[in-house]
Amino acid sequence: MSDIPSIELPTGLIPEDGRFGSGPSKVRTESLLELGVTGSSFMGTSHRQPTVKAVVGAIRGGMSKLFSLPDDYEVVLGVGGATAFWASATFGLIERKSQHLDFGVFSGKFAKVVEGAPHLEKPEVIKSDIGTHPLPVPNPEVDLYALTHNETTTGVMMPIVRPEAEGLVAVDATSAAGGMAVDPSQFDVYYFSPQKVFGGDGGLWIAFCSPAALDRIGRIHDSDRWIPGFLSLQLAVNNSIKDQTTNTPALATLFLVRAQIDSMLEMGGLDWALDRCARSSEIVYSWAEDSTYAYPFVTNAAERSTNVATVNLTDEIDADVVAAILRENGIVDTGGYRALGQNQLRIAMFPNVNPDDVETLTMAIDYIVERM
């Protein structure tokens, strides 16, 4: 990275809240204050007792309402984040062979986990160039199609449409859930970690499971396949129905997720969240398209994420330096995903991020670049 020049932003070019990270993302200050008010009645208490179980129950009910889930879908919680869920799915959701769409760092990681599983056939992996997304291809040998709603590393989103084939559809929605539209009839498992849209911390996964998925989980659990208890989806289902998790969860994360769901429902639910993300993304992409030094990394406008924008800068402008200057001015986590090797900024536009702050950010970047 080049030497970082000292550039101080005028007060009018500093967002009210300077957090634009793609995960961990902006957490509502109101939620943190609400957690603090609980004093000794929540944190430091047993997760098997009514105080915590009521929060888990509120999360399950709130998610069902927010996403308009059918009555026979279950909201399941587990400890370990989406990475742990990939391992759980490898043990307890895939029967023989899976198909994976690989169009970024995270969408490819699930496939790598499955490739190392000795009890499964080699997965079918369909790749596309970064900045684009492939589509699933029906295959009679495949019993699970692994899709990614939003690729956090590249800023590419894809529609979730069930392939015309037998097999379950499992969707990694970690940076999509709550900020992008989805039809529950098009998936069997929609799973995510709550440190993006839902303003919590990592270490927890949440999955919406259809009756077909629940049946598959039960059948594999009852087979002779060895499954570590920590990764057992059936144990996660059994405990979630009781409004608890198999292992001790992070209580603060549960509380923050519940508070975020309540806030979203109060503001207007998923429609409100989608509109807010759409407004922020319109600001970013219009600015980048009109810029003389910036441009959207994703060329197909229909594939540009409404939750995570990736914006490339021309070679003479070092994006890492821009991000470093922003950080010195209290505007944080705008750097691109390093593994992509792009000269780019990455801007989260989750519902907690105010579109007015997004607009101020674009003006701040212009100010900095003019003085570099």
Helix and strand layout, with pairings?
Blueprint: H1 29-37, H2 50-66, E1 74-79, H3 81-92, E2 98-102, H4 105-115, E3 124-127, E4 144-148, E5 150-151, E6 156-157, E7 168-172, E8 189-192, E9 204-209, H5 211-221, H6 233-241, H7 251-267, H8 269-290, E10 294-296, E11 308-313, H9 319-328, E12 344-348, H10 355-371
Parallel strand pairs: 2-3, 2-4, 4-7, 7-8
Antiparallel strand pairs: 1-9, 5-6, 8-9, 10-11, 11-12
Helix pairs in contact: 1-7, 2-7, 7-8, 8-10
Folded structure, characterized:
The longest helix has 22 residues, at 269-290. The strands form 3 sheets. The protein has a 7-stranded mixed beta sheet with strand order 1-9-8-7-4-2-3, with helices on both faces. Strands 10-11-12 form a 3-stranded antiparallel beta sheet. The chain has a two-stranded antiparallel sheet with strand order 5-6. By secondary structure, it is α/β, with parallel strands linked by helices. The mean pLDDT is 96. The chain is 36% helix and 14% strand. It has helices at residues 29-37, 50-66, 81-92, 105-115, 211-221, 233-241, 251-267, 269-290, 319-328, 355-371; strands spanning 74-79, 98-102, 124-127, 144-148, 150-151, 156-157, 168-172, 189-192, 204-209, 294-296, 308-313, 344-348. The protein is globular, with a radius of gyration of 21 Å. It has 2 domains: 11-27 and 269-371, Alpha-Beta Complex (Aspartate Aminotransferase, domain 1); 30-266, Aspartate Aminotransferase, domain 2 (3-Layer(aba) Sandwich), CATH 3.40.640. The protein contains 10 helices and 12 strands.
